[in-house]
């Protein structure tokens, strides 16, 4: 198990205990109603919490997502931009998958670059891309936006990784786990696009083969959780633009309906509505 998963689990357990809830009671309050065993695995660090579940946990526990994450100054650095790793990834296995992924991606035709957006804040960068692409209504065509930024989307099947971005000789490529639900794939694409447009690759890199197996367990000196949070913020603003969400909310306040309209998970939409102060956090 990873040290990050353990610390996140400890924070979930502490928040649950403060509320006087059992693991079963917490599970019953969460969208999708995971089993008490799943809660136990999260709290023990045996399984890491996915992004959608983390958002839902924060909502139910009445916390900000950052309160469930370790202090970035205490993080062990890692090499690759991996999002929502389900369990500790075997370095050699990941190295082999990345080599196969890169080899296959190099043979694929490259998309044309249609839009260039200067990096700014996550919100401003997302808004600039939406304006450049002429997006005026939901759902946001995330695949078209990624491709229009000159990035190849290459679905891959490796259960421990939701997505990552890597710069190959032929150009940038985003890995998205094709076995995941569509809403999760869409958020992954938006998150990885955020890393690219916010220029986090000045600080992150991927290495293949033996080099990767040395770095994947944690030795890169520049890893910063702020970049992950910025990419999540970018993704939320891109997939659920504030203006569009407010307009849709004025017509229908149901989070499930809005989630379907924007093609995001109900948990992500619920958190977005709270963030935009359209609804109150559920306690």
From TrEMBL:
GO molecular-function terms, A-Z: DNA binding
SMART domains, per the entry: HTH_XRE (SM00530)
Chain ranges passing through the membrane: none
Pfam families recorded: HTH_3 (PF01381), Peptidase_M78 (PF06114)
HTH cro/C1-type domain residues: 12-68
SUPFAM superfamilies: lambda repressor-like DNA-binding domains
Family: Belongs to the short-chain fatty acyl-CoA assimilation regulator (ScfR) family.
Protein name from the UniProt record: HTH cro/C1-type domain-containing protein
């Amino acid at each position: 198990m990873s040290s990050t998963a353990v610390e996140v689990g400890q924070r979930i357990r502490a928040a649950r205990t403060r509320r006087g809830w059992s693991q079963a009671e917490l599970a019953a309050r969460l969208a999708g109603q995971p089993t008490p065993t799943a809660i136990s695995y999260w709290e023990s660090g045996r399984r890491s919490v996915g992004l959608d579940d983390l958002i839902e946990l924060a909502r139910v526990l009445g916390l900000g997502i950052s309160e469930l994450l370790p202090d970035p100054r205490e993080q062990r650095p890692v090499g690759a931009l991996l999002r929502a790793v389900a369990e500790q990834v075997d370095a050699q296995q990941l190295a082999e998958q990345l080599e196969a992924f890169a080899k296959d991606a190099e043979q694929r035709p490259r998309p044309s670059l249609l839009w260039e957006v200067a990096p700014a804040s996550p919100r401003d960068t997302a808004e600039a891309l939406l304006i450049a692409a002429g997006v005026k209504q939901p759902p946001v065509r995330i695949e078209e936006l990624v491709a229009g930024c000159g990035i190849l989307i290459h679905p891959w099947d490796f259960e421990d990784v939701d997505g990552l971005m890597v710069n190959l000789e032929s150009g940038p490529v985003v890995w998205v786990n094709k076995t995941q639900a569509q809403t999760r794939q869409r958020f992954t694409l938006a998150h990885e696009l955020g890393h690219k447009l916010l220029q986090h690759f000045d600080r992150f890199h991927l290495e293949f083969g033996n080099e990767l197996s040395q770095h994947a367990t944690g030795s890169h000196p520049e890893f910063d959780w702020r970049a992950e949070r910025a990419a999540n913020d970018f993704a939320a603003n891109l997939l659920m633009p504030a203006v569009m969400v407010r307009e849709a909310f004025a017509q229908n306040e149901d989070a499930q309906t809005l989630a379907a309209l924007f093609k995001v998970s109900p948990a992500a939409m619920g958190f977005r509505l709270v963030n935009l102060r359209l609804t109150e956090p559920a306690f």
